[in-house]
Design the sequence.
C-alpha cells in the first residue's frame, strides 16, 4: 500500500542525516522536526475551520518563556519547555472564548492583530526579552546530567517531540474528539442542535494547538541558543500556511509532508529570497487551483485516512 | 493634522471599498489587495517618473492597468474558489507574495520615490496645507464620486450592490454571475491601483508598501461591517482621523494597541460591524 | 390536563421591521403530536429556531418541563431533551449512516471537553436499534450523501433520536417526499410517539398528513396565530380558510 511507502520514505529521510553526516544537513533536519509540532498545531485549527495567525506568536511565547524559565529561575530545561508551553495555552484559554465566538475572517484579523502585539511586546520589553538585539546566553539543553552540545543531539530531541506530537494529533483525529471537531466544522447548526458546545470544543482545540506550538518554541530556543523577535512574525505565518497547503489539510500526515518539503527551501535559496517568495506564491496558488487536498491527495484518497 | 487624517482616511476608504466589494460578492478575503495598490504606485513610478508622462494620465493609466490585471487574476485564479473562504484566502495570499516578488525582482528592495508633481503650500484658517496633498485628496474624492455614481446609477453597479447585500439575489438581477465577479474584482483592483497611484508622490514606493494599507482596509472593513459599502466609507474616514489624532497623542506602539482594542470591542459588541447586517 | 412539556408564551421575533412571529402562545402536552401550519413565510421555521435557541426571542417566553429556556443557546436546549430536524436535509454527507448516528451520540453525550474527561455514565443510545426502528439497518454502511433524498431525511430523524430527546421539533419532514414516502413518514412520526414516547412538534405543509396525525394544530399567518384546536376545529375555522384562500391546499 502506498501509504506504507510514504511512512518508509519518511523513516528513511529521518535517518538520512547520519549517513550524510554533514552539520548543514543535520541543521535542516533539526529545523524540520522543530517545525512539525508548530505546523501540526496550526493544522488542528485549520481542521476546525479557523485560520489562526496567532501561532507564530504562540511559538515565540513558548520559546522566550522556556528560555527565561531556565535562565532566570534555573528550571531544568525539559521542565521549562513543558511549563513554557503552558503559557501560550493559557493565553489561548483566555483569548479563545473571545476570539472563537467569531468565525472566519474576523478570527483571522483578530489573531493577526494579537500576533503583531506579541511581536511588539518582544521588541519593546527589552529588560525581559532583550528587544531587537536579542536574548543571548540561553544554556544548552540538559537532562539527567546529559548536556546536548551537538546539532545531532538536538535533532534527536526534536525528532522525539515531533513523533510524540504527531502520534498525539493522530490519536485525537481518530478518536471521537476528532469526529466531534469535524462535525462542528462540517455543520455547526446540526452539531449544536444535538447538544455539542461548539465554543468549548473550539477553545479546547485552540489550547491544545497553542500548547504544541509552545513545545516547538521551547525546543527551538534551546537549539538556537539566541532569540530575537524576528522569526515570530508574519513570515512564519506564510511559511506555516504554505506547509499546510502543500502537504494538504485533510490528514495529520499532510502538514508533516508539507514541513519536510518546505522547510529546506529557504536554506536552499538562501541568497535569493525573492525567488523563495515566488515559489511559495506559485505553490499556494497551484495547490489551491489544482490540488486543494495537497500532496497527500496524490498518495491516499482522503477517505482511507492516514 | 486634520488634513492628513482626511487624506489617510480617503485612501483607506478607496482601499476598503474594493476590499469589501470583493468580500461581499465573492466571499474572498483579498490579501492581495495591498499589492494592487503597490502596482498602481509602481505604474506611476514608471510612467510618470520614468517616461515623464503627465501625472494625471499616469495615474489613470496605472489604475486601468491594475484593474485589467485584477480581472485577469479573477478569471484565472479566483473564479474557482468563489464562496470558499479558506481557499480564497490562501490563494490571495499566494498572489500577494508573487506580486511582491515580481516587483522585488524588477525594482530591487530599495524604496524609491517619484518627484512631486505639485509643490508649495497654502493656508487655511492658520493651518499650513501642502499642495500635493490637496490635489491628491481632491482626486481621491473625484474617484469616490465616480465610483458612487457607478454604483447608484449603472445596472451593473446596482446588481453588484444587491449581490453584496444578499448573495442569494444574484440570479434575480438578471446579470450573469461571472460578469459580476469579474467586474467586482476588476473594479476593486482599479480602485486599489488608483489609490496607490495617487499616493505615489507622497510616500516611498517599494515591494512591501501595500501591506500596511491592506491591513488598514481589513480593519476598516471589519469595523464598518464586511460587505457593507457605507460601512467602508464611514470606517475609513473614522480610522484615518482617529489615527492621525492618536499618533500625535501617543507613540505608535500604544496607538497600535489602542486601535486593536477598538477593533476587538467592535467585533465583540457588533460582530457584524457598525453598519453590518444584523443577523445572529 | 397534565403539566405541559413545552410552554410558549407571548413569543415574538422581529427581523428589523419584519415581525416573523407575533405574540405566539401554545403548549405541547407530554405524548402529544402538535402541528403548526401556515402559508409560506408564516414564521413557522422562525418559531422553531427561537424554541431551539438558534434565535433569541424579541419578547416572550419558552419553558420546557417547567424550566425557562428562553434565549438559551441551541446546544443547551438540545441537552435538555429537545431535538430537531431541519427543513433542508442536514446530515454529515461524507460519512456513513453508522458514522452519522455515532457522531450524534457522541455530540450529545460528550458535549464539551470536560464532559469528555468526566466520562458520563449515560448509557450509549442503541445505534443498531435506532437504525432498525427507522428501517435504515441495511444501509448502515452507505455514505449518507449518496442516499435518496427521502432516506437522507430519515437519517436526519435518526440523528435527532440518538440525542435521546423527550420532544422532537420536525420542520417539514414530508417536504420533497413522494406519496408513498409521505405515508411512511406519517407512520414514523406516530411510532416515535407511540413506541419511543417522544412528543412531536411538527411543521408541515402536507395537509392530509398534518390532519391525519396531529392531536392539535396551531395556524399561523404572517407571524400571527389565527387558530388553535383539533384538526376538525381548525378545518372549519373561517379565518383559516380565508388565510389559505387562493392557495392550492386541500383540506382533506
Ligand atoms: N434570519 C432572517 N433575517 C431576516 N428575515 C428572516 C430571517 N429568517 C426568516 N426571515 C423572514 O421571516 C419570515 C418568516 O420566515 P420563516 O422561514 O419562518 O417562514 P416559514 O413559515 O418557515 O415558511 P416556509 O413555509 O416557506 O418554510 C419570512 O418573511 C422570512 O423572510
Ligand atoms: Mg420554513
Sequence:
Amino acid at each position: 500500500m502506498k501509504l506504507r511507502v510514504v511512512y518508509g520514505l519518511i523513516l528513511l529521510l529521518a535517518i538520512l542525516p547520519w549517513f550524510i553526516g554533514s552539520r548543514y544537513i543535520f541543521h535542516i533536519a533539526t529545523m524540520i522536526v522543530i517545525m512539525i509540532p508548530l505546523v501540526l498545531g496550526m493544522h488542528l485549527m485549520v481542521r476546525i475551520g479557523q485560520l489562526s495567525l496567532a501561532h507564530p506568536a504562540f511559538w515565540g511565547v513558548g520559546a522566550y518563556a522556556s528560555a527565561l524559565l531556565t535562565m532566570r529561575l534555573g528550571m531544568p530545561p525539559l521542565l521549562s519547555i513543558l511549563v513554557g508551553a503552558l503559557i501560550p495555552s493559557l493565553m489561548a484559554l483566555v483569548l479563545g472564548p473571545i476570539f472563537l465566538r467569531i468565525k472566519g475572517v474576523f478570527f483571522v484579523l483578530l489573531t493577526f492583530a494579537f500576533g503583531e502585539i506579541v511581536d511588539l511586546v518582544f521588541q519593546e520589553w527589552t529588560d525581559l526579552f532583550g528587544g531587537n538585539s536579542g536574548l543571548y546566553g540561553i544554556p544548552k539543553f540538559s537532562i539527567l546530567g546529559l548536556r546536548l552540545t551537538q546539532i545531532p543531539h538536538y535533532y534527536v530531541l526534536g525528532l522525539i517531540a515531533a513523533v510524540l506530537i504527531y502520534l498525539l494529533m493522530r490519536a485525537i483525529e481518530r478518536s471521537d474528539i476528532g469526529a466531534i471537531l469535524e462535525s462542528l466544522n462540517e455543520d455547526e447548526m446540526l452539531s449544536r442542535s444535538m447538544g455539542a458546545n461548539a465554543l468549548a470544543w473550539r477553545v479546547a482545540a485552540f489550547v491544545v494547538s497553542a500548547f504544541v506550538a509552545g513545545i516547538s518554541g521551547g525546543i527551538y530556543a534551546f537549539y538556537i541558543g539566541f532569540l530575537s523577535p524576528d522569526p515570530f512574525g508574519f513570515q512564519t505565518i506564510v511559511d506555516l500556511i504554505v506547509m499546510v497547503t502543500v502537504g494538504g489539510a485533510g490528514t495529520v500526515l499532510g502538514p508533516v509532508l508539507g514541513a519536510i518539503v518546505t522547510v529546506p527551501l529557504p536554506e536552499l535559496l538562501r541568497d535569493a529570497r525573492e525567488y523563495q517568495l515566488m515559489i511559495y506564491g506559485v505553490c499556494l496558488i497551484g495547490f489551491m487551483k489544482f490540488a486543494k487536498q495537497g500532496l497527500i491527495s496524490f498518495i491516499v484518497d482522503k477517505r482511507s485516512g492516514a | 493634522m486634520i488634513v492628513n487624517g482626511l487624506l489617510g482616511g480617503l485612501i483607506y476608504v478607496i482601499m476598503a471599498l474594493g476590499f469589501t466589494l470583493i468580500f461581499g460578492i465573492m466571499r474572498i478575503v483579498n490579501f492581495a489587495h495591498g499589492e494592487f495598490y503597490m502596482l498602481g504606485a509602481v505604474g506611476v513610478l514608471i510612467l510618470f517618473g520614468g517616461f515623464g508622462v503627465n501625472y494625471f494620465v499616469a495615474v489613470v493609466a496605472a489604475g486601468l492597468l491594475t484593474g485589467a490585471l485584477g480581472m485577469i487574476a479573477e478569471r484565472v485564479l479566483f473564479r474557482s474558489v468563489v464562496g470558499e473562504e479558506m481557499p480564497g484566502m490562501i490563494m490571495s495570499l499566494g498572489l500577494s507574495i508573487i506580486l511582491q516578488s515580481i516587483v522585488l525582482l524588477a525594482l530591487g528592495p530599495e524604496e524609491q520615490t517619484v518627484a512631486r508633481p505639485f509643490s508649495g503650500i497654502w493656508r487655511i484658517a492658520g493651518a499650513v496645507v501642502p499642495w500635493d496633498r490637496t490635489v491628491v485628496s481632491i482626486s481621491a474624492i473625484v474617484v469616490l464620486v465616480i465610483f458612487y455614481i457607478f454604483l447608484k446609477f449603472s445596472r451593473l453597479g446596482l446588481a453588484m450592490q444587491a449581490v453584496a447585500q444578499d448573495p442569494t439575489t444574484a440570479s434575480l438581477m438578471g446579470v450573469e454571475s461571472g460578469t459580476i465577479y469579474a467586474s467586482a474584482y476588476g473594479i476593486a483592483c482599479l480602485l486599489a491601483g488608483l489609490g496607490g497611484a495617487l499616493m505615489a508622490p507622497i510616500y516611498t514606493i517599494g515591494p512591501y508598501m501595500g501591506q500596511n494599507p491592506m491591513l488598514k482596509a481589513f480593519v476598516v472593513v471589519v469595523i464598518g461591517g464586511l460587505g457593507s459599502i457605507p460601512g467602508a466609507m464611514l470606517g475609513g474616514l473614522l480610522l484615518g482621523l482617529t489615527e492621525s489624532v492618536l499618533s500625535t497623542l501617543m507613540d505608535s506602539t500604544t496607538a497600535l494597541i489602542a486601535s486593536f482594542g477598538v477593533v476587538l470591542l467592535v467585533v465583540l459588541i457588533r460582530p457584524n460591524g457598525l453598519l453590518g447586517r444584523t443577523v445572529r | 390536563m397534565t403539566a405541559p412539556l413545552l410552554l410558549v408564551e407571548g413569543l415574538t421575533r422581529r427581523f428589523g421591521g419584519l415581525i416573523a412571529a407575533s405574540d405566539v402562545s401554545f403548549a405541547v402536552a407530554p405524548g402529544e403530536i402538535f402541528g403548526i401550519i401556515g402559508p409560506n413565510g408564516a414564521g413557522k421555521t422562525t418559531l422553531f429556531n427561537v424554541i431551539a435557541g438558534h434565535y433569541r426571542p424579541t419578547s416572550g417566553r419558552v419553558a420546557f418541563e417547567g424550566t425557562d429556556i428562553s434565549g438559551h443557546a441551541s446546544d443547551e436546549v438540545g441537552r435538555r431533551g429537545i431535538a430537531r430536524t431541519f427543513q433542508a436535509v442536514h446530515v454529515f454527507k461524507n460519512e456513513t449512516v453508522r458514522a452519522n448516528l455515532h457522531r450524534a451520540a457522541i455530540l450529545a453525550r460528550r458535549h464539551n471537553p470536560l464532559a469528555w474527561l468526566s466520562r458520563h455514565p449515560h448509557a450509549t443510545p442503541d445505534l443498531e436499534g435506532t437504525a432498525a426502528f427507522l428501517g435504515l439497518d441495511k444501509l448502515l454502511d452507505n455514505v449518507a450523501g449518496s442516499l435518496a433524498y427521502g432516506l437522507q431525511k430519515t437519517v436526519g430523524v435518526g440523528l435527532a433520536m440518538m440525542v435521546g430527546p423527550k420532544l422532537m421539533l420536525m420542520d417539514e419532514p414530508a417536504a420533497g417526499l413522494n406519496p408513498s414516502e409521505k405515508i411512511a413518514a406519517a407512520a414514523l412520526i406516530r411510532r416515535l410517539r407511540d413506541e419511543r414516547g417522544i412528543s412531536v412538534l411538527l411543521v408541515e405543509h402536507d395537509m392530509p398528513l398534518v390532519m391525519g396525525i396531529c392531536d392539535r394544530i396551531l395556524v399561523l399567518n404572517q407571524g400571527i396565530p389565527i387558530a388553535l384546536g383539533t384538526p376538525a376545529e381548525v378545518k372549519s375555522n373561517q379565518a383559516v380558510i380565508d388565510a389559505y384562500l387562493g392557495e392550492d391546499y386541500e383540506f382533506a
About this structure: The pocket of magnesium ion (ligand 2) is lined by residues C 44-45, 87 (CB under 6 Å). Residues 2-207 of chain B form one domain.
